[in-house]
Amino acid sequence: RRVLFRSLYLALEDNLCRMKDRLGKLMPREQWPANLHIGFEAKRLDQGLIEDLEDVLDVHTDLGVVIIDTFGWIKPRPSGAGMYADDVDALKQLVQLAHRRGIAVVLVHHTRKAPGSGVDAVNGTNGLAGTADNVIVLTHEEEGLARLQITGRDISEPADLLVELD
């Protein structure tokens, strides 16, 4: 049995024209999912994002996934408590929202430019990977290949997969 739920994709680095182009490459327009909602603007975490998401979740009770692309657009300004504490505090709000509402919050973030793999590739402090329930890292390997690494609190065996891009 297939369970359908509403998804919200906050494509904060995109615009409507670019999104139409991307979706058009993935599937014909008549197949675009009716339960996918896309937004191009959002407040920062320290300026009311959680409250706005709570309001959306109150109205759309079938919302099961919120995807935020990317973290840099919603990350609060530094508090002076230190980078690690700032990263933990920022992600903690999203993790608590996900747990409280029984939804998935997928946060897209960039990897470091320096060599590293898995959680070590996550840009920022260890507070990001340590606070998230799960971390999925996708890195380009060579033409047509990528590495997909998955780890998390409830994942008994981390995965390290070489995937072919199509």
What are its keywords?
4 helices, alpha/beta, 166 residues, three-stranded antiparallel beta sheet, 27% strand, four-stranded parallel beta sheet
Give the arrangement of secondary structure elements.
Elements: E1 6-11, H1 16-26, E2 36-39, H2 49-59, E3 63-69, H3 83-101, E4 104-108, H4 126-131, E5 134-142, E6 145-152, E7 159-164
Parallel strand pairs: 1-2, 1-3, 3-4
Antiparallel strand pairs: 5-6, 6-7
Structure commentary:
With 166 residues, this protein is of the alpha/beta class. The protein is built from four helices and seven strands; from the N terminus they run βαβαβαβαβββ. The chain has helices at 16-26, 49-59, 83-101, 126-131; strands at 6-11, 36-39, 63-69, 104-108, 134-142, 145-152, 159-164. A four-stranded parallel sheet has the order 2-1-3-4, covered by helices on one side. The chain has a three-stranded antiparallel sheet with strand order 5-6-7, with no helix packed on it.
Largest sheet: 4 strands, parallel
- If helices are DSSP runs of H or I spanning 4 or more residues, what is the number of helices? 4
Strands in their spatial order, largest beta sheet:
2-1-3-4
SS-based structural class?
A: alpha/beta
Summarize the structure.
By secondary structure, the protein is α/β, with parallel strands linked by helices.
